[in-house]
Structure formats: C-alpha cells, structure tokens
Amino acid sequence: MHFRQKIFAREGRSFPGRIYAETVLAPAYEEAKAHLFKPMMAVNKAQLIMLVEQGLVKQSDACRIMKAILNVTDDRIQRTTYTGKFEDLFFQVEHLLIEEAGEIAGNLHLGRSRNDMGVAMYRMAIREKLLEALAALVELKETVLEVADEHKLTIMLGYTHTQQAQPTTMAHYLMAMLDSLGRDYKRLTAALDTVNQSPLGAAAITTSGFAINRQRMAELLGFDGFIENSYDAIAGGDYLGETALALKMSMISLGRYISDFLQWSTQEFGAVTAAEPYVQISSIMPQKRNPVSFEHIRSLASSVTGLCETVLTMLHNTPFGDIVDTEDDMQPYLWKALTTATQLYRLTAAVIGTMTVNSDVLLARARESFATVTELADTLVRECGISFRQAHAVVQKAVKTALAAKIGVRRIDARLVAAAAEEVLGKAIAVNDEMISQALDPVNFVMRRCLPGGPAPVEVERMINKRRPILAANKAAVIDIQLRIKKALEWLDEVGHSWSEKA
Question: Which top class of enzyme applies to this chain (predicted)?
C-alpha cells in the first residue's frame, strides 16, 4: 500500500483527520468549554440586543433567538465532547441555536466573524482572570503591610552580594517588597486597560456593510471602549504580550523575595519560622520541619514565568493578522499562568501573614556584626573633623586589627580606633568609648537612618501611613471594575430572560 493510502486509511479522508482532531481540535474544544462558553453566550446576547436596536433584526425574531440562547446552557455544553461533526465550539453552538430557533438564528451572525468574536471572548476570559489576580495581589499587599507594621522595631541585618551589609529592620525589607508589589499592580492594571477593549464590529478584518454599533457592543459587554482600527482589532496580539510581560516580571520578583524567606527559614539563619499549616515532615528524619510552602511558591512562580515566555515566543515573528498562533493553541498558557499566579499571591499572603519572626535572634546577630561600622566612620567625620575617605580608612584599619586579634565588634574601643588613626593619618583624633559604643549599636544605626525611605521606625511609619490609602484605592479600583463588568453581564441576562418570555 502506498504511504499516502496508509495515512488516509489511518486518518480518514474527510475533515477532521484523526491525529489533527486528537492533537488540536479536541483539546481546543475542551479548553473552549471551560473558559470561553460563557463569554461566547454573553457576546451572543449583546450582539442580538444591538442588532435589534439598530433595526437589523425584528423584535419578534430576536425573542425566539434569545430563547434559544438561554436554552443552550452551560450544563448542556459541558456534557458534550468533540466528535468532529462541527469544527469547533462556535459551530456547535450555532447549530444548537438554529435547531432551537430555526434558520432565523443564522442572522445572529450579521456583521460579525469568528475573528472579532473570538478575540472578544479571549479578552473577556483574560480580563476575568486578570481581575482575580489583581484582587489576590492586593490581598498580598495588605498582608505585607500589616506584617511590616508589626516589625518596625525588629532590627536585622541587610545583605548585599549575600554578605552582611548594614543594619535595617524587617519592616524596611517588607516595605521594599510592598513597593515592588505595587509596581506589579501598576503593570497588571496597565495590561488590563489594554485587554479590556472590544474588537467587535471589526468582523473578519474590514468591519461590515451592516450598520453595526461598535460602541454599543463594547458597553453591553463591560469593555472600556473599542479598538478603532478594524485591522488592529483582529491582528493585534500585544494585549497578550503585555499581560504575559507584566505577569512574568511579577513572578520573577516574587521568586526573589521567596528565596530570601526560604534562606531565612534555615536553622542556621533562624530568622523566620513558617507556621504549621505550611510545613511538611520527613519520612525518615524525625527532626525535620521543612518550610516547603516557600519552595512551592518559588517553583510555581518559575513555572508561570515559563508559561509567560511561551506566550511571548508564540507571538514572536508571527504575521500581523488573524492567525492561530495567538488563538486556541496559545490562550491556555496565559489562562494557566494567570490562575497559578492568583493562587501564588494568596498562598504567599497566608505563609507570610502567619510566619513567626525571631526578633531576638536577628537583633543579637546585628549586635555581633561588623555591619555597623559605616556609622562609626560617619561619627568620626562628625566628631573629629576628618573627611569621610579618611574616616573610612581609619575604620577599615580598626576592623582589620580586630579581626586579626580575633576580637568581636563589641570590643572595638577608643584606644583601638585612636591607634588606627595614628597609623593611617599620622595624627591623633579625639574619641572616647561612649562615642564608639553608640556608633556601633545597630539600634542607633537604624534610628539615625531617618531620611526619606530609610529604616528608622518613624520613617517606616510614615511610609506605611502613606501607602494605606493607596492600598485602599487599589482594592476599590479592582472591585469597581469587577462590579461594572458584573452589572453589564447581569443586564444582558435580565434582557435575555425578558425577551425569552415573549417568544
């Protein structure tokens, strides 16, 4: 048998070929059932209402069509499987509508295409998941702010290049995390602004000869407006790329914070302890208490980063037009990325909000560290009238002497600093033990850093108070958009039921 005949014998000679159905069409059908059916039916209701308002469909016919739309329920569709009889979910639903209402239901497709309809459905699905992610992100921001408020006086070491750098506070660290999360919020809301624009009325690519009201379609479906250029409406995939980029950046940042918390959870570090609901034990080592929640967050954040990169890669070098690279094959990657990110924001809030911070350990470590010696150099500038570069050299010599003699930072005294100055500067400087002791105190170090953005409790308190109303505004904004979209879709349902009863 010729190889072509072998393929046809295995795959069949009519649409769809078996392997094509298994690889592409059946999975796409299942994804569409799960994520796109409700947006599809909302678009159908909005389209019908607009057509009646524009005088393109008679009210009596519209009532019959609306009744059919309501009879094609989610439960009914979820029980279906891909058979190959219809190319995709759109044609499956259209067939059911014509079955219910007769051929008049075919006029529901006046002035539209699967192109603009599909992009509208994708945008509706993504905006819903984006809003869920934003709500979870705001919840995480709230938790971080409250934990920071509890730890304004929790002194700890800050690190640069993984080495002890200078004393700071847990609140200062957490507020840095909060502000980074705030930028994630801005990027994701900017993506939402791009996503929440209607392509409807663009039809295949050039709009329609029918008097379609594009603005009305946008209003009915809760979009902020419509994409003016009809070519752009069906060709532009940057709404996908912008969402993926914003989410990818957020997950990269999340992984960085979590790497710190995971390190801080080690017994050697001893800075934080995850609460019981978020640790697991070893099957063989009775002493183990594994903070795997942090590990899972980091690992899954990386998986979201990968999903987002997949979206961007699928967009790369594709023609600027209607093309499958931006459609059924790609969308599930972004849906999964958004859903996973939402769960990670919530999990991170739960783990950080319940962890114990071992303040005494952190303070003791800061007291034993040489990380305070920047303040000693600053003190020499203030009190002894030497330049900072001279003071830096004197303190560096003092630290080297202490390390060579194997004495800790708390044993650096006026005599040792004066000797270092004599050697480095060739002259004496006036210092005393009280001055040195205060300069090397990590609490004093933090209290002095009260410039804008510094770790001093008074400054952190100011930052917290400044961010509370911003956080409240973030939360209100997400709720407002969700409610506005919900009301638009509920109104469609109300009209649908009203018209259906007149059929």
Answer: lyase
Q: Exposed, middle or buried by CB within 10 Å (0-12, 13-18, 19+), for 238?
A: middle
Alpha-carbon distance values, 342 to 9, 39, 114, 129, 497 (Å): 46, 21, 30, 8, 33
Amino acid at 497: H
| Residue labelled with tokens 């039921």 | 497
Q: Does residue 63 contact residue 502 with C-beta atoms inside 8 Å? A: yes
| pLDDT of 9 | 72
| Distance between start and end Cα atoms, the chain | 58
Answer for the pair 334, 240: CB distance below 8 angstroms, yes or no.
yes
Decide: 202 and 234 in contact? Cβ < 8 Å.
Answer: yes
Tell me whether the omega of the peptide bond preceding residue 277 falls within 30 degrees of 0, making it cis: no
| C-alpha count within 13 angstroms, C-beta hemisphere, residue 179 | 10
Closest CA to 265 of 351, 180, 345: 351
Average pLDDT over residues 354-365: 97
Facing residues of 175 across strands? none
Structure tokens at 437: 């002791």
CB 63 within 8 A of CB 500: yes
At residue 57, the pLDDT reads: 97
One-letter amino acid for residue 435 of the chain: M
Q: What are phi and psi of 163, to 5 degrees?
A: -115, 150
Which superfamily is assigned to 115-365+461-493 in CATH? Fumarase/aspartase (Central domain) (1.20.200.10)
**Residue 169, strand partner residues:** 155
Alpha helices (runs of H) in 196-288, residue ranges in sequence order: 214-220, 230-235, 238-264
Domain 369-448 class in CATH: mainly alpha
Amino acid at residue number 94: E
Q: Measured between alpha carbons, how far is 351 from 21 in angstroms, rounded to an integer?
A: 43
The domain spans of the chain are 3-35+57-109, 115-365+461-493, 369-448
Q: Could you tell me the pTM of the whole model?
A: 0.94
Stretch 457-466: mean pLDDT: 98
Give the integer Cα–Cα distance in Å for 117 and 41.
Answer: 11
- The string of DSSP codes covering 94-128 is HHHHHHHH-GGGGGGGTT--HHHHHHHHHHHHHHH
Length of the chain: 503
* Residues 369-378 pLDDT 10s: 999 999 999 9
Q: Which of 192-206, 296-310, 380-394 has the lowest mean pLDDT?
A: 380-394
The whole-angstrom separation of Cα 277 and Cα 279 is 6
CA distance 303 to 313: 15
CB atoms near residue 435 (< 10 Å): 18
Q: What is the pLDDT of residues 51-101, one digit of tens each?
A: 999 999 999 999 999 999 999 999 999 999 999 999 999 999 999 999 999
For 310, list phi and psi in degrees, rounded to 5.
-60, -45
Mapping DSSP to helix (H, G, I), strand (E, B) and coil, where does residue 88 land? coil
115-365+461-493 and 369-448: same fold? no
Is residue 1 scored above 80 in pLDDT? no
